């Protein structure tokens, strides 16, 4: 009888342990789902914040791009104007030197 009682006790203990394991598994599953849902909510909030930052940053970037394009156009115009002035200055200097040499040559020939 002791053998049967021992086996019955073992089987009862095994059943209790299996029930406890099932309860623990259920708890872990429910906690895991709660943790997942909490993490998903946090991730969604962070995504919303990041989207808001990108949208506001995108608007700022567009305005900066427009400003830079306008500034680029102005600088190109100023560069073209500066190049034209520099070319005229060079022509003036060359013409002045040529004129100086011509006048000097005429004076030297006249004095001979």
UniProtKB/TrEMBL annotation:
Domain DUF7900: 1-65
Transmembrane segments: 92-111
Superkingdom of origin: Eukaryota
UniProt keyword list: Coiled coil, Membrane, Transmembrane, Transmembrane helix
UniProt keyword Transmembrane present: yes
Coiled coil stretches, renumbered: 58-85
Name this protein carries in UniProt: DUF7900 domain-containing protein
Organism: Eruca vesicaria subsp. sativa (Garden rocket)
